[in-house]
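Many introductory courses stop at the sequence. We go one step further.
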Amino acid sequence: MKSAILCGRNREGLINRLEEVVPTGDSVLLLITCGNNVELQMKTKIYFLLNEFFHVRYVGKTKRTLELRLKGHLDEAQKGHKCKKCCGIRKMFRKGKCPTIVLQTEVEGTGSNAERAYIKWYRSKGVDLWNLTNGGDGNSDPSIETRKKIGDALRNIMKSSEHRKKISKTLEGRKKNPETIVKLHLAAIGKPKPPFSPEHKKALRLAWTPERKKALGFAMKILKWTPERKKAKSLAMIGNKNAIKHQNERKVK
C-alpha cells in the first residue's frame, strides 16, 4: 500500500484546503490540495499496523524509517512482551503471518495530536485496536533542559559486573566503521576524563608485563607505515597536547 498522502492542484496554486475524507475501508486519508511547488515540511510519520486481513489494528508514530519501526514491534513480540499488541503479533506468527506497516501521513512536530485523533476515530467506529492508551505517550522530542537533566542523571553511573559482562558479550565480534571511529575521536577531543582509581592504575601496571612490552616493541618495528595508518595516526594526534609538544621539539632539533 502506498502512502496515504494525496496531493492535487487547485486553480489558485496555494495550499488552501485540508479536509478529512471519511474512510470506507481501513484508512483515514488526509487530502491536501496544493500548487505546483509542493514543499511539505513533515517530520513525524503516522503509521498503521495491519493484520492478515489488512484491517487496522495499531496506530503509531515514529521519526525513524517504517522498516526499523516494524522491526522494533516484531522484536518486542519475539521477546515475549505481554502487551496486547505483542500478543496479537504472536498470534499472527502462529498462523504463519506477519503484520504489515503502512504510512498514513506525516505531520510536523511530535505527531501526538494526530496519533490521538486517529486512535479516537477508530475506537469511535468500534475497532478493537492493539493500542493500550489513547496515544501521544512519551516525549519523543525533549527540550534541551530535559536532555541535560537526563544526561546529568545517567552520567557516571557505575554498572554492575553482571551488566558489564552482558554488554561485553553483546559487543563481541563487532567492528566499528572507520568513519565512526574518527567521529568518536573528534567528539571526545577536549572533554575532561575522570581520574583513574588506584585499583585501575594497579591493574594497568600488572597488565603491561615484560613479555607484552617486548611483543609490542617487536610488532611496531615490523609494522609498515601505510598511507591509511599515517592518516589514522594523524587524526589520533589531533588535540593531543603531548603529541603536539613532542612534534614541535623534533622540528626544533
